[in-house]
């Protein structure tokens, strides 16, 4: 119904779809379910059967191995619930095809919440743009930007993610995309030291502000410092008139707080910027009015002056 140009889609988005504790993602001919509440966990087998019937998929995988289950005392589990065949699946995001192992890769296999933003950033990028995609994971932003024809450098610290992104570049025939294993903070400092400049810089780190606990305040302060350093380095690496894309998927960082962090990071860099877009998650990850936790992703697209 959303007319999405992809077959990697979130089908059930927990509270936003009035099904608290349940996530269902589809990757081509496979589906993944996550249950994070006692109620949904108790009906996991029945949910898997309903998902397979409704979507007509080949296989249904459970990825009930996340930390969210710990809050309700649920054991962690990952495995095939129904069907057979490989859990490595090729799926489509716009013009690009990606591969994920639904049983072992992060989240449910991929980061579908950024799919619409991949396309939005690429659409705004000039032709032949030189681009940097830090924290690339499987290469979502990098693959989209490489379609603009310019050289793209994508980085990730995880060796498995680098291998998968490299294979995704090969799968799509994008020889202008280089994937490098590196710590993003170290690499950004190195590139800045060499005076490198890019037309587009994408900073999409994992959640730096974790869930609250006994040290919640100090953890949030540490996350703030890390975010501001990323924004500072990214701004200095963006040529005047270029685009800086800064993202936070930390639920503990509100939109207003993210605005403040972005402004502070830019000020520390000595750069001004215009807001081209303040985006949330993709259309298949709707936010429920009155429940801000369902809109945790913040993707700001800026023009650096």
Description:
31% of the residues lie in helices and 29% in strands. It is α/β, with parallel strands linked by helices and 305 residues long. The strands form 3 sheets. A 7-stranded mixed β-sheet has the order 10-9-8-11-12-14-13, sandwiched between helices. The protein has a 5-stranded mixed β-sheet with strand order 1-2-3-4-5. It has a two-stranded antiparallel sheet with strand order 6-7. Helix 3 (115-124) runs parallel beside helix 4 and helix 6 runs parallel beside helix 7 (216-237). The model has no long low-confidence stretch (mean pLDDT 95).
Give the key terms:
about 30% helix, 5-stranded mixed beta sheet, globular, alpha/beta, about 30% strand, single chain, about 300 residues, 7-stranded mixed beta sheet
